[in-house]
Write a structure and sequence with these properties.
Blueprint (H helix, E strand, L loop, with lengths): L12 H18 L4 H8 L7 H14 L3 H12 L11 H6 L5 H12 L15 H13 L8 H12 L3 H10 L5 H21 L4
Helix pairs in contact: 1-7, 2-3, 3-10, 7-8, 9-10
């Protein structure tokens, strides 16, 4: 996505941490991690919460994963010969087909929020990596002022909540997943936290 301006300094620490985790998921799902990112993940430590335990498990796997192995795994999962084991797109998960109504709805909402696709990105905008990045940007104000919790909730409920948890569960259980099984577990738990957090906010 295109960065419109510097993130707003009024964003709370909790929201900045949420955005950081969305950004992390977007980064590792956009392409295979290099050695620097693997080293950063290996240095993470989690607490005794479900998310903390998932992060600890991901850290352990990253510690013994080489970039070449991560690239082979990423290609098998998401690219493959013709297609990978998983198709990480909202349209596919919600309709069974690519480039369907969920993508059109997302493009409309992107236009309203002045979110534009970067010129070097050719994937449909409803892929999981882009949606994670968009959510992070909304939280910290990358596309303007930080989105209100109501706007975040609306975007999540429309474009992420209906399918991202299923995708992360599939990633966790995928035949080709090793490093990405831990990414899937962390993503699944994080989506549950976000879902429950938004449910506690008033409509």
């Amino acid at each position: 996505m295109v960065t419109a301006q510097q993130p707003d300094t009024t964003v709370t620490e909790e929201d900045r941490l949420r955005a950081d985790f969305y950004n992390f998921l977007g980064l590792i799902l956009a392409g295979p991690p290099d050695q620097m990112l693997l080293d950063q993940i290996a240095g993470l430590t989690g607490d005794n919460t479900d998310l903390g335990q998932a992060i600890t498990a991901l850290s352990r796997v990253a510690h013994v994963t080489k970039p070449a192995a991560a690239e082979r795994e990423f290609n098998a999962l998401f690219i493959g010969l013709g297609r990978g084991e998983l198709l990480p797109y909202a349209s596919y998960y919600l309709t069974g087909f690519l480039n369907e109504k969920p993508l059109a709805q997302l493009r409309n909402d992107m236009a309203v929020r002045a979110i534009t696709r970067a010129p070097n990105v050719y994937e449909p905008e409803d892929n999981i990596a882009s949606l994670m990045e968009m959510m992070a940007g909304l939280i910290v104000g990358r596309f303007g002022t930080p989105a209100s919790i109501e706007d975040q909730k609306a975007f999540y409920n429309k474009h992420i909540g209906p399918w991202a948890g299923h995708f992360y569960s599939d990633l966790e259980a995928a035949e080709q997943s090793v490093l990405y099984a831990s990414v899937g577990a962390a993503g699944r738990v994080f989506m549950e936290i976000e879902r429950d957090g938004f449910r506690m906010t008033a409509d």
